[in-house]
DNA sequence: GTAATAGTGTCTATGAGACAATATCCG
DNA sequence: CGGATATTGTCTCATAGACACTATTAC
Protein backbone atom coordinates (compact mmCIF):
# COMPACT_ATOMS: atom_id res chain seq x y z
CA UNK A 1 0.00 0.00 0.00
CA UNK A 2 2.79 2.38 0.90
CA UNK A 3 5.98 2.20 -1.10
CA UNK A 4 9.38 2.00 0.50
CA UNK A 5 10.37 5.57 -0.21
CA UNK A 6 7.47 7.00 1.77
CA UNK A 7 8.33 8.99 4.87
CA UNK A 8 5.93 10.39 7.45
CA UNK A 9 5.45 14.15 7.11
CA UNK A 10 7.09 16.50 9.61
CA UNK A 11 4.84 18.76 11.59
CA UNK A 12 5.37 21.89 13.68
CA UNK A 13 3.87 21.75 17.14
CA UNK A 14 2.67 24.66 19.23
CA UNK A 15 1.01 24.91 22.60
CA UNK A 16 -1.73 27.46 23.16
CA UNK A 17 -3.24 28.41 26.47
CA UNK A 18 -6.74 29.38 27.49
CA UNK A 19 -5.97 31.06 30.80
CA UNK A 20 -9.08 31.92 32.75
CA UNK A 21 -9.50 33.81 35.98
CA UNK A 22 -12.15 35.67 37.93
CA UNK A 23 -11.71 39.42 38.02
CA UNK A 24 -14.32 42.01 38.98
CA UNK A 25 -16.76 39.12 39.40
CA UNK A 26 -16.44 38.29 35.71
CA UNK A 27 -14.81 35.45 33.86
CA UNK A 28 -11.75 36.85 32.11
CA UNK A 29 -9.15 35.51 29.77
CA UNK A 30 -5.52 36.44 29.26
CA UNK A 31 -4.80 37.53 25.71
CA UNK A 32 -1.62 38.88 24.14
CA UNK A 33 -1.21 41.24 21.25
CA UNK A 34 0.88 39.58 18.59
CA UNK A 35 4.11 41.38 17.81
CA UNK A 36 5.09 39.36 14.77
CA UNK A 37 3.52 38.04 11.61
CA UNK A 38 1.24 36.33 10.98
CA UNK A 39 -1.69 38.18 12.56
CA UNK A 40 0.61 40.94 13.82
CA UNK A 41 -1.36 43.26 16.05
CA UNK A 42 -4.24 40.85 16.57
CA UNK A 43 -5.22 39.44 19.94
CA UNK A 44 -4.19 35.85 20.48
CA UNK A 45 -3.96 33.17 23.10
CA UNK A 46 -0.58 32.92 24.81
CA UNK A 47 1.45 30.15 23.29
CA UNK A 48 4.29 29.18 21.04
CA UNK A 49 6.36 26.45 19.50
CA UNK A 50 8.07 23.72 21.41
CA UNK A 51 11.55 24.84 22.34
CA UNK A 52 13.23 21.73 21.03
CA UNK A 53 12.39 18.19 20.04
CA UNK A 54 12.99 16.92 23.57
CA UNK A 55 10.67 19.28 25.43
CA UNK A 56 7.57 17.56 26.85
CA UNK A 57 4.33 19.20 25.77
CA UNK A 58 3.19 19.91 29.29
CA UNK A 59 6.52 21.49 30.08
CA UNK A 60 6.11 23.78 27.09
CA UNK A 61 2.66 24.74 28.31
CA UNK A 62 3.95 25.58 31.77
CA UNK A 63 6.82 27.52 30.26
CA UNK A 64 4.51 29.61 28.11
CA UNK A 65 2.23 30.16 31.07
CA UNK A 66 5.15 31.48 33.05
CA UNK A 67 6.63 33.54 30.23
CA UNK A 68 3.43 35.14 29.11
CA UNK A 69 1.70 35.68 32.40
CA UNK A 70 4.46 35.57 34.98
CA UNK A 71 2.55 32.93 36.89
CA UNK A 72 4.23 30.32 39.02
CA UNK A 73 3.50 26.86 37.73
CA UNK A 74 2.46 25.24 40.98
CA UNK A 75 -0.49 27.45 41.82
CA UNK A 76 -2.38 26.48 38.70
CA UNK A 77 -4.78 24.09 37.33
CA UNK A 78 -3.53 23.04 33.89
CA UNK A 79 -5.12 20.46 31.67
CA UNK A 80 -5.15 19.32 28.09
CA UNK A 81 -7.96 20.91 26.14
CA UNK A 82 -7.72 19.68 22.58
CA UNK A 83 -5.78 19.54 19.36
CA UNK A 84 -6.25 22.02 16.57
CA UNK A 85 -4.52 21.02 13.40
CA UNK A 86 -6.71 21.92 10.46
CA UNK A 87 -4.47 22.44 7.43
CA UNK A 88 -4.34 26.12 6.60
CA UNK A 89 -5.00 27.39 10.12
CA UNK A 90 -1.49 28.80 10.17
CA UNK A 91 -0.05 30.42 7.03
CA UNK A 92 3.44 29.30 8.02
CA UNK A 93 2.71 25.72 7.14
CA UNK A 94 1.28 22.67 8.84
CA UNK A 95 1.18 23.74 12.44
CA UNK A 96 -0.68 21.61 14.97
CA UNK A 97 -1.56 23.27 18.23
CA UNK A 98 -2.08 21.44 21.48
CA UNK A 99 -4.43 23.65 23.45
CA UNK A 100 -4.45 23.72 27.23
CA UNK A 101 -6.87 25.08 29.74
CA UNK A 102 -5.41 26.90 32.72
CA UNK A 103 -7.35 28.24 35.68
CA UNK A 104 -5.74 30.74 38.00
CA UNK A 105 -6.82 32.63 41.08
CA UNK A 106 -7.16 36.34 40.79
CA UNK A 107 -3.68 37.77 40.54
CA UNK A 108 -1.92 40.89 41.85
CA UNK A 109 -1.97 42.49 38.44
CA UNK A 110 -1.27 41.04 35.05
CA UNK A 111 2.06 40.95 33.57
CA UNK A 112 4.35 43.93 33.88
CA UNK A 113 7.98 43.24 33.19
CA UNK A 114 7.53 39.86 31.60
CA UNK A 115 8.29 38.62 28.13
CA UNK A 116 4.84 39.42 26.89
CA UNK A 117 4.25 42.86 28.32
CA UNK A 118 1.22 43.12 26.09
CA UNK A 119 -0.78 40.48 27.93
CA UNK A 120 -4.02 41.67 29.49
CA UNK A 121 -7.19 40.23 30.95
CA UNK A 122 -10.34 40.56 28.88
CA UNK A 123 -13.88 39.68 29.93
CA UNK A 124 -14.81 36.50 28.11
CA UNK A 125 -18.33 37.59 27.26
CA UNK A 126 -17.01 40.77 25.69
CA UNK A 127 -14.58 38.88 23.49
CA UNK A 128 -17.11 36.27 22.47
CA UNK A 129 -19.93 38.68 21.68
CA UNK A 130 -17.86 41.40 20.01
CA UNK A 131 -16.44 41.45 16.53
CA UNK A 132 -12.89 41.23 17.83
CA UNK A 133 -11.02 38.82 15.62
CA UNK A 134 -8.59 36.57 17.40
CA UNK A 135 -5.58 35.22 15.57
CA UNK A 136 -5.64 31.80 13.91
CA UNK A 137 -8.55 29.66 15.16
CA UNK A 138 -8.17 30.99 18.68
CA UNK A 139 -11.77 32.09 18.86
CA UNK A 140 -12.81 28.51 18.52
CA UNK A 141 -10.24 27.35 21.05
CA UNK A 142 -11.47 29.96 23.50
CA UNK A 143 -15.06 28.83 23.02
CA UNK A 144 -14.07 25.23 23.64
CA UNK A 145 -12.06 26.17 26.71
CA UNK A 146 -14.88 28.13 28.27
CA UNK A 147 -17.31 25.33 27.57
CA UNK A 148 -14.90 22.86 29.17
CA UNK A 149 -14.62 25.02 32.26
CA UNK A 150 -18.40 25.34 32.48
CA UNK A 151 -18.86 21.62 32.18
CA UNK A 152 -16.18 20.74 34.71
CA UNK A 153 -17.66 22.98 37.37
CA UNK A 154 -20.57 20.57 37.38
CA UNK A 155 -18.81 17.38 38.24
CA UNK A 156 -15.39 18.40 39.53
CA UNK A 157 -13.85 20.64 42.15
CA UNK A 158 -12.37 22.87 39.47
CA UNK A 159 -14.10 25.92 40.93
CA UNK A 160 -11.60 26.01 43.79
CA UNK A 161 -8.84 26.60 41.23
CA UNK A 162 -10.32 30.06 40.66
CA UNK A 163 -9.89 30.89 44.33
CA UNK A 164 -6.81 31.52 46.38
CA UNK A 165 -5.43 28.96 48.83
CA UNK A 166 -8.12 30.03 51.29
CA UNK A 167 -11.56 31.32 50.45
CA UNK A 168 -15.07 31.88 51.71
CA UNK A 169 -18.01 29.98 50.35
CA UNK A 170 -19.42 33.24 49.05
CA UNK A 171 -16.31 33.62 46.93
CA UNK A 172 -16.69 30.09 45.65
CA UNK A 173 -20.27 30.85 44.82
CA UNK A 174 -19.18 33.84 42.76
CA UNK A 175 -17.09 31.51 40.63
CA UNK A 176 -20.14 29.49 39.72
CA UNK A 177 -22.22 32.59 39.14
CA UNK A 178 -19.64 34.19 36.87
CA UNK A 179 -18.72 31.12 34.85
CA UNK A 180 -22.26 29.86 34.45
CA UNK A 181 -23.86 33.30 34.36
CA UNK A 182 -26.53 32.32 36.85
CA UNK A 183 -27.57 33.48 40.31
CA UNK A 184 -27.51 30.95 43.09
CA UNK A 185 -29.12 30.93 46.50
CA UNK A 186 -26.30 31.41 49.02
CA UNK A 187 -28.05 29.29 51.63
CA UNK A 188 -28.61 26.31 49.40
CA UNK A 189 -25.14 26.70 47.93
CA UNK A 190 -23.68 26.67 51.41
CA UNK A 191 -25.35 23.45 52.40
CA UNK A 192 -24.67 21.85 49.05
CA UNK A 193 -20.94 22.51 49.14
CA UNK A 194 -20.60 21.47 52.75
CA UNK A 195 -22.52 18.29 52.08
CA UNK A 196 -20.37 17.24 49.14
CA UNK A 197 -17.56 14.95 50.15
CA UNK A 198 -14.05 16.29 49.70
CA UNK A 199 -15.01 19.56 48.03
CA UNK A 200 -13.78 21.96 50.70
CA UNK A 201 -12.36 21.66 54.20
CA UNK A 202 -12.61 24.43 56.80
CA UNK A 203 -9.24 25.74 57.91
CA UNK A 204 -10.60 27.21 61.14
CA UNK A 205 -10.01 30.84 60.34
CA UNK A 206 -12.48 33.53 59.44
CA UNK A 207 -12.31 36.54 57.22
CA UNK A 208 -13.67 39.89 58.27
CA UNK A 209 -16.07 41.45 55.80
CA UNK A 210 -16.47 45.17 55.22
CA UNK A 211 -19.82 44.73 56.85
CA UNK A 212 -21.69 41.85 58.44
CA UNK A 213 -20.71 38.65 60.12
CA UNK A 214 -17.22 37.30 59.34
CA UNK A 215 -17.14 34.28 57.06
CA UNK A 216 -15.39 30.98 57.71
CA UNK A 217 -12.45 30.24 55.45
CA UNK A 218 -12.03 27.01 53.56
CA UNK A 219 -9.31 25.27 51.61
CA UNK A 220 -9.75 22.97 48.62
CA UNK A 221 -10.62 19.48 49.78
CA UNK A 222 -8.95 16.23 48.74
CA UNK A 223 -11.70 15.29 46.29
CA UNK A 224 -11.50 15.98 42.58
CA UNK A 225 -14.90 14.64 41.60
CA UNK A 226 -18.14 16.08 42.93
CA UNK A 227 -20.58 13.48 44.14
CA UNK A 228 -23.34 14.41 43.78
CA UNK A 229 -22.63 16.91 41.01
CA UNK A 230 -23.56 20.57 40.98
CA UNK A 231 -26.54 21.11 38.75
CA UNK A 232 -26.32 23.73 36.07
CA UNK A 233 -29.77 25.09 35.43
CA UNK A 234 -30.34 25.75 31.76
CA UNK A 235 -32.10 29.01 32.53
CA UNK A 236 -29.90 32.08 32.09
CA UNK A 237 -29.19 34.76 34.64
CA UNK A 238 -30.75 37.43 32.44
CA UNK A 239 -34.01 35.52 32.44
CA UNK A 240 -33.89 34.98 36.16
CA UNK A 241 -33.05 38.61 36.80
CA UNK A 242 -35.98 39.94 34.82
CA UNK A 243 -38.33 37.59 36.62
CA UNK A 244 -37.48 38.93 40.05
CA UNK B 1 15.39 35.37 24.25
CA UNK B 2 15.45 33.35 21.08
CA UNK B 3 18.20 34.07 18.61
CA UNK B 4 17.53 34.51 14.93
CA UNK B 5 18.86 31.14 13.90
CA UNK B 6 16.38 29.24 16.07
CA UNK B 7 13.85 27.10 14.26
CA UNK B 8 10.93 25.21 15.77
CA UNK B 9 11.57 21.48 15.98
CA UNK B 10 9.86 19.13 13.53
CA UNK B 11 7.64 16.44 14.99
CA UNK B 12 6.14 13.23 13.66
CA UNK B 13 2.41 12.89 14.19
CA UNK B 14 0.43 9.70 14.51
CA UNK B 15 -3.19 8.94 15.19
CA UNK B 16 -4.16 6.06 17.44
CA UNK B 17 -7.61 4.66 17.92
CA UNK B 18 -9.36 3.19 20.92
CA UNK B 19 -12.16 1.34 19.15
CA UNK B 20 -14.73 -0.06 21.53
CA UNK B 21 -17.73 -2.24 20.90
CA UNK B 22 -20.06 -4.56 22.72
CA UNK B 23 -19.63 -8.24 21.93
CA UNK B 24 -20.92 -11.19 23.93
CA UNK B 25 -22.29 -8.66 26.43
CA UNK B 26 -18.75 -7.49 27.17
CA UNK B 27 -16.88 -4.33 26.40
CA UNK B 28 -14.27 -5.20 23.81
CA UNK B 29 -11.48 -3.36 22.05
CA UNK B 30 -9.97 -3.81 18.63
CA UNK B 31 -6.23 -4.50 18.78
CA UNK B 32 -3.76 -5.30 16.04
CA UNK B 33 -0.61 -7.34 16.19
CA UNK B 34 2.27 -5.23 15.03
CA UNK B 35 4.07 -6.57 11.98
CA UNK B 36 7.01 -4.18 12.04
CA UNK B 37 9.47 -2.79 14.49
CA UNK B 38 9.31 -1.31 17.01
CA UNK B 39 7.25 -3.63 19.23
CA UNK B 40 6.94 -6.19 16.43
CA UNK B 41 4.55 -8.92 17.51
CA UNK B 42 3.06 -6.91 20.35
CA UNK B 43 -0.59 -5.93 20.54
CA UNK B 44 -1.25 -2.30 19.75
CA UNK B 45 -4.02 0.16 19.07
CA UNK B 46 -4.83 0.64 15.40
CA UNK B 47 -3.15 3.77 14.12
CA UNK B 48 -0.37 5.24 12.08
CA UNK B 49 1.31 8.32 10.75
CA UNK B 50 -0.39 11.06 8.82
CA UNK B 51 -0.26 10.27 5.13
CA UNK B 52 1.06 13.65 4.15
CA UNK B 53 1.39 17.14 5.53
CA UNK B 54 -2.00 18.15 4.15
CA UNK B 55 -4.10 15.41 5.69
CA UNK B 56 -6.45 16.62 8.43
CA UNK B 57 -6.06 14.71 11.67
CA UNK B 58 -9.65 13.58 11.78
CA UNK B 59 -9.38 12.32 8.22
CA UNK B 60 -6.36 10.27 9.20
CA UNK B 61 -8.29 8.82 12.12
CA UNK B 62 -11.19 7.81 9.88
CA UNK B 63 -8.78 6.38 7.35
CA UNK B 64 -7.07 4.22 9.95
CA UNK B 65 -10.43 3.14 11.29
CA UNK B 66 -11.44 2.01 7.84
CA UNK B 67 -8.11 0.39 6.99
CA UNK B 68 -7.67 -1.49 10.23
CA UNK B 69 -11.21 -2.49 10.97
CA UNK B 70 -12.99 -2.28 7.63
CA UNK B 71 -15.60 -0.08 9.19
CA UNK B 72 -17.51 2.52 7.24
CA UNK B 73 -16.85 5.96 8.58
CA UNK B 74 -20.42 7.19 8.88
CA UNK B 75 -21.74 4.59 11.26
CA UNK B 76 -19.35 5.59 14.02
CA UNK B 77 -18.91 7.81 16.91
CA UNK B 78 -15.43 9.28 16.72
CA UNK B 79 -13.99 11.86 19.08
CA UNK B 80 -10.69 13.28 20.15
CA UNK B 81 -9.35 11.56 23.22
CA UNK B 82 -6.00 13.11 24.05
CA UNK B 83 -2.43 13.77 23.05
CA UNK B 84 0.40 11.49 24.02
CA UNK B 85 3.77 12.96 23.28
CA UNK B 86 6.16 12.09 26.08
CA UNK B 87 9.69 12.11 24.70
CA UNK B 88 10.92 8.55 24.47
CA UNK B 89 7.54 6.91 24.06
CA UNK B 90 8.56 5.92 20.54
CA UNK B 91 12.11 4.74 19.83
CA UNK B 92 11.92 6.16 16.32
CA UNK B 93 12.16 9.73 17.59
CA UNK B 94 9.82 12.41 18.76
CA UNK B 95 6.46 11.02 17.82
CA UNK B 96 3.33 12.67 19.12
CA UNK B 97 0.15 10.66 18.96
CA UNK B 98 -3.31 12.12 18.77
CA UNK B 99 -5.54 9.49 20.29
CA UNK B 100 -9.17 9.09 19.31
CA UNK B 101 -12.06 7.23 20.84
CA UNK B 102 -14.35 5.35 18.48
CA UNK B 103 -17.52 3.54 19.43
CA UNK B 104 -19.04 1.04 17.04
CA UNK B 105 -22.07 -1.19 17.07
CA UNK B 106 -21.47 -4.88 17.10
CA UNK B 107 -20.20 -5.92 13.71
CA UNK B 108 -20.69 -8.92 11.42
CA UNK B 109 -17.25 -10.24 12.22
CA UNK B 110 -13.97 -8.49 12.59
CA UNK B 111 -11.69 -7.81 9.79
CA UNK B 112 -11.01 -10.52 7.27
CA UNK B 113 -9.53 -9.36 4.04
CA UNK B 114 -8.51 -5.92 5.16
CA UNK B 115 -5.14 -4.30 5.43
CA UNK B 116 -4.68 -5.38 9.00
CA UNK B 117 -5.86 -8.96 8.91
CA UNK B 118 -4.45 -9.36 12.39
CA UNK B 119 -7.01 -7.13 14.07
CA UNK B 120 -9.19 -8.83 16.64
CA UNK B 121 -11.57 -7.90 19.42
CA UNK B 122 -10.37 -8.43 22.97
CA UNK B 123 -12.38 -8.05 26.16
CA UNK B 124 -11.21 -4.86 27.83
CA UNK B 125 -11.19 -6.29 31.32
CA UNK B 126 -8.98 -9.15 30.19
CA UNK B 127 -6.47 -6.80 28.61
CA UNK B 128 -6.43 -4.43 31.56
CA UNK B 129 -6.13 -7.08 34.23
CA UNK B 130 -3.69 -9.36 32.46
CA UNK B 131 0.02 -8.96 32.01
CA UNK B 132 -0.33 -8.43 28.28
CA UNK B 133 2.01 -5.63 27.31
CA UNK B 134 0.66 -3.28 24.72
CA UNK B 135 3.06 -1.41 22.44
CA UNK B 136 4.22 2.11 23.26
CA UNK B 137 2.04 3.77 25.90
CA UNK B 138 -1.08 2.20 24.47
CA UNK B 139 -2.04 0.65 27.79
CA UNK B 140 -2.39 4.11 29.20
CA UNK B 141 -4.31 5.36 26.18
CA UNK B 142 -6.68 2.41 26.46
CA UNK B 143 -7.25 3.15 30.12
CA UNK B 144 -8.01 6.77 29.34
CA UNK B 145 -10.33 5.81 26.52
CA UNK B 146 -12.33 3.41 28.63
CA UNK B 147 -12.59 5.93 31.39
CA UNK B 148 -13.79 8.53 28.91
CA UNK B 149 -16.45 6.17 27.61
CA UNK B 150 -17.58 5.35 31.14
CA UNK B 151 -17.84 9.01 32.03
CA UNK B 152 -19.67 9.99 28.87
CA UNK B 153 -22.35 7.37 29.38
CA UNK B 154 -23.38 9.38 32.39
CA UNK B 155 -24.13 12.68 30.79
CA UNK B 156 -24.38 11.99 27.06
CA UNK B 157 -26.25 9.76 24.67
CA UNK B 158 -23.05 7.94 23.75
CA UNK B 159 -24.55 4.59 24.73
CA UNK B 160 -26.64 4.57 21.56
CA UNK B 161 -23.42 4.53 19.53
CA UNK B 162 -22.85 0.98 20.77
CA UNK B 163 -26.18 -0.09 19.30
CA UNK B 164 -27.29 -0.50 15.74
CA UNK B 165 -29.58 1.99 14.00
CA UNK B 166 -32.52 0.43 15.83
CA UNK B 167 -32.42 -1.21 19.23
CA UNK B 168 -34.48 -2.30 22.19
CA UNK B 169 -34.13 -0.67 25.57
CA UNK B 170 -32.90 -3.96 26.94
CA UNK B 171 -30.01 -3.79 24.49
CA UNK B 172 -29.27 -0.23 25.53
CA UNK B 173 -29.29 -1.36 29.13
CA UNK B 174 -26.72 -4.03 28.33
CA UNK B 175 -24.40 -1.28 27.13
CA UNK B 176 -24.52 0.41 30.50
CA UNK B 177 -24.16 -2.85 32.35
CA UNK B 178 -21.13 -3.93 30.33
CA UNK B 179 -19.30 -0.61 30.29
CA UNK B 180 -19.96 0.23 33.90
CA UNK B 181 -19.91 -3.35 35.13
CA UNK B 182 -23.10 -2.94 37.10
CA UNK B 183 -26.55 -4.50 37.07
CA UNK B 184 -29.48 -2.23 36.50
CA UNK B 185 -33.18 -2.71 37.11
CA UNK B 186 -34.84 -3.02 33.70
CA UNK B 187 -38.02 -1.36 34.90
CA UNK B 188 -36.34 1.69 36.33
CA UNK B 189 -34.00 1.86 33.36
CA UNK B 190 -36.96 1.78 31.02
CA UNK B 191 -38.71 4.70 32.65
CA UNK B 192 -35.51 6.63 33.07
CA UNK B 193 -34.54 6.44 29.41
CA UNK B 194 -38.03 7.22 28.23
CA UNK B 195 -38.26 10.17 30.55
CA UNK B 196 -35.01 11.71 29.40
CA UNK B 197 -35.52 14.26 26.66
CA UNK B 198 -34.04 13.41 23.29
CA UNK B 199 -32.31 10.19 24.33
CA UNK B 200 -34.29 7.75 22.18
CA UNK B 201 -37.33 7.93 19.94
CA UNK B 202 -39.57 4.96 19.19
CA UNK B 203 -39.63 3.99 15.56
CA UNK B 204 -42.91 2.12 15.83
CA UNK B 205 -41.58 -1.33 15.15
CA UNK B 206 -41.02 -4.22 17.49
CA UNK B 207 -38.50 -6.99 17.60
CA UNK B 208 -39.47 -10.53 18.29
CA UNK B 209 -37.55 -12.17 21.07
CA UNK B 210 -36.63 -15.84 21.22
CA UNK B 211 -39.10 -15.99 24.05
CA UNK B 212 -41.43 -13.53 25.71
CA UNK B 213 -43.19 -10.39 24.68
CA UNK B 214 -41.71 -8.53 21.69
CA UNK B 215 -39.85 -5.34 22.54
CA UNK B 216 -40.41 -1.94 21.00
CA UNK B 217 -37.58 -0.66 18.85
CA UNK B 218 -36.03 2.75 19.26
CA UNK B 219 -33.65 4.94 17.34
CA UNK B 220 -31.16 7.42 18.78
CA UNK B 221 -32.88 10.67 19.66
CA UNK B 222 -31.83 14.16 18.63
CA UNK B 223 -30.28 14.97 22.02
CA UNK B 224 -26.58 14.62 22.75
CA UNK B 225 -26.67 15.59 26.41
CA UNK B 226 -28.60 13.67 29.03
CA UNK B 227 -30.69 15.81 31.29
CA UNK B 228 -30.94 14.59 33.93
CA UNK B 229 -27.82 12.45 33.75
CA UNK B 230 -27.60 8.73 34.29
CA UNK B 231 -26.20 8.00 37.69
CA UNK B 232 -23.27 5.68 37.97
CA UNK B 233 -23.39 3.96 41.30
CA UNK B 234 -19.95 3.55 42.77
CA UNK B 235 -20.77 0.05 43.97
CA UNK B 236 -19.50 -2.70 41.68
CA UNK B 237 -21.50 -5.47 40.08
CA UNK B 238 -19.50 -8.12 41.94
CA UNK B 239 -20.57 -6.63 45.24
CA UNK B 240 -24.16 -6.33 44.13
CA UNK B 241 -24.18 -9.86 42.79
CA UNK B 242 -22.98 -11.38 46.02
CA UNK B 243 -25.63 -9.49 47.94
CA UNK B 244 -28.48 -11.03 45.98
C1' DG C 1 -30.55 49.23 68.91
C1' DT C 2 -29.96 48.95 62.94
C1' DA C 3 -27.63 47.23 58.87
C1' DA C 4 -25.39 43.70 56.69
C1' DT C 5 -23.75 39.31 55.71
C1' DA C 6 -22.99 34.30 57.48
C1' DG C 7 -25.08 30.24 58.52
C1' DT C 8 -29.41 26.89 60.00
C1' DG C 9 -34.07 24.82 59.66
C1' DT C 10 -38.01 23.46 57.20
C1' DC C 11 -41.09 22.57 53.58
C1' DT C 12 -42.09 20.93 48.81
C1' DA C 13 -41.30 18.98 44.34
C1' DT C 14 -38.73 15.84 41.65
C1' DG C 15 -36.10 11.92 40.54
C1' DA C 16 -33.78 7.29 41.86
C1' DG C 17 -34.38 2.70 43.42
C1' DA C 18 -37.06 -1.32 45.18
C1' DC C 19 -40.39 -4.17 43.67
C1' DA C 20 -45.61 -5.68 42.77
C1' DA C 21 -48.53 -6.05 39.02
C1' DT C 22 -50.02 -6.25 34.24
C1' DA C 23 -49.30 -7.05 29.02
C1' DT C 24 -48.01 -9.76 25.12
C1' DC C 25 -45.69 -12.91 22.87
C1' DC C 26 -44.37 -18.53 22.18
C1' DG C 27 -45.54 -23.07 22.71
C1' DC D 1 -52.90 -22.72 29.89
C1' DG D 2 -47.32 -21.82 31.63
C1' DG D 3 -43.01 -19.54 30.77
C1' DA D 4 -40.52 -15.67 29.51
C1' DT D 5 -39.72 -10.98 28.69
C1' DA D 6 -41.69 -6.14 28.12
C1' DT D 7 -43.99 -2.38 30.13
C1' DT D 8 -46.67 0.11 33.84
C1' DG D 9 -47.69 1.47 38.71
C1' DT D 10 -46.67 2.44 43.39
C1' DC D 11 -44.05 3.29 47.32
C1' DT D 12 -39.99 5.22 49.82
C1' DC D 13 -35.92 7.79 50.31
C1' DA D 14 -32.61 11.39 48.97
C1' DT D 15 -31.69 15.75 47.22
C1' DA D 16 -32.55 20.50 44.86
C1' DG D 17 -34.77 24.78 45.46
C1' DA D 18 -37.62 28.29 47.86
C1' DC D 19 -37.45 30.85 51.71
C1' DA D 20 -38.22 31.93 57.05
C1' DC D 21 -35.23 32.29 60.57
C1' DT D 22 -31.11 32.76 63.76
C1' DA D 23 -26.05 34.28 64.54
C1' DT D 24 -22.30 37.49 64.64
C1' DT D 25 -19.99 41.29 63.35
C1' DA D 26 -19.68 46.98 62.70
C1' DC D 27 -21.68 51.12 63.76
How is this structure best described in words?
The structure is a homodimer of 244-residue chains. Chain A is of the alpha+beta class. Chain A has 2 domains: 12-152, Nucleoside Triphosphate Pyrophosphohydrolase; 156-243, Arc Repressor Mutant, subunit A. The first copy, chain A, contains 6 helices and 9 strands; from the N terminus they run ββββαβββααααββα. In chain A, strands 1, 2, 3, 4, 5, 6 and 7 form a 7-stranded mixed beta sheet that branches. In chain A, strand 8 and strand 9 form a beta hairpin. Mean pLDDT of chain A is 89; it is low at 235-244. Chain A binds chain B through residues 1, 8-14, 49-57, 80, 82-83, 85-87, 93-94, 96, 98, 115, 155, 227, 229, 234, and chain B through 1, 8-14, 49-57, 80, 82-83, 85-87, 93-94, 96, 98, 115, 155, 227, 229, 234. Chain A binds a DNA duplex (27 and 27 nucleotides) through residues 168-170, 185-188, 190-192, 195, 206, 208-216, 228, 231.
What overall form of chain A do the CA principal axes indicate?
A: elongated
* Helicity of chain A, as a percent range: 25-40%
CATH class of the largest domain in chain A: Alpha Beta
Strand content of chain A: 25-35%
Largest sheet of chain A: 7 strands, mixed
Task: Give the number of helices of chain A.
Answer: 6
Which ranges of chain A are low-confidence, i.e. pLDDT below 50, for 5 or more consecutive residues?
235-244
Number of domains of chain A: 2
Amino acid sequence: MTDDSWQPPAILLTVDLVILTLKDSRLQILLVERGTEPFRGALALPGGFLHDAQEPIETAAKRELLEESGLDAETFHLEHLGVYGTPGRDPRGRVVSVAHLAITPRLPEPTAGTDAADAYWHPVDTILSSDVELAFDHHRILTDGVERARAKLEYSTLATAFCGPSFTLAELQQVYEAVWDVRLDPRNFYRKVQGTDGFVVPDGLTRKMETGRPARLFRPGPGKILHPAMIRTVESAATQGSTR
